[in-house]
Amino acid sequence: MKRVSSGDRIFYILNNAFMLLMIAVCIYPMLYVLFASFSDAGKLMQQSGAMLWPAGFSTEAYKAVLKNRMIWISYKNTFIQVFLGTAIAMVMTVMCAYILSRKNLKIKKLINIILVASMFFSGGMIPGYLAIKSYGMLNTVWAIVLPPAISAMNVIVMRTSFQALPASLEESASIDGASEMHILFNIILPLSKPVLAVIALFYGVAMWNSWFSAAIYLDKRDLFPLQLYLREVLINSSTDAMMTGSAGSAATDRVAVSETIKYATIIVSTLPILFAYPFLQKYFVKGVMVGAIKG
Fold this sequence. Notes:
Blueprint lengths: L5 H32 L3 H6 L13 H7 L2 H32 L7 H10 L7 H10 L7 H4 L6 H12 L3 H9 L4 H9 L4 H17 L2 H6 L8 H10 L15 H42 L3
Helix pairs in contact: 1-14, 3-14, 4-8, 4-11, 4-13, 8-11, 8-14, 9-10, 11-14, 13-14
């Protein structure tokens, strides 16, 4: 058994203490929102300092949130945007990365320069809005899913991952008469599942958290995604539609109920992505390393 020196023991203790502190710093804000969402509205207003458990216990905020029609509409819009946007983005990213990973592509250097330049320069918000308007995509889901349909960084990561695969596999398939599409779908993609999962996670999370594009291109509330509606609730304090049972209450009580509703709305809008992430987490580190190291 290897003997641990006193210096190593002190390092392990300090390192573990530091990591526990970082875990607490990351987890506590989420726990605070969770506890506040289950708190009694009146007791929450009297709460000061750290909150280690709900101030009282009440599910009225969740009942108000789940009865709200806009929550379910925005959920539906967000799921449509996430699945449609991620599918389109993955197809475009895979095709672009595969083409750029080919050794015999003559204009590969020029395309790479253009690709990298797009990471530093863009057309701007006003030209982008005019382009979307000219294509007739305002107040449609296409205005949300098509502009961010391909990320230069994700293309570079996936291209590097494709290049890291043994060239002998493709050469053997070519000798046997396999086409480029056969090589891509039957050889390259099955061997690239980790990086595909990571890139899909990147696109999915970006689509789920996106609200700015919707704020620019959508003015019909029935098309709002969840994050844009959440912004409306948190910043504009538009919780009146969820406080029908508090219409005759005092102003202080309405403010208290409004606060618990805000916390409940945050929890409701965050749960799906929290449930989905653990299933893809095992691919995360491996996928990034595969895409970042050549050889």
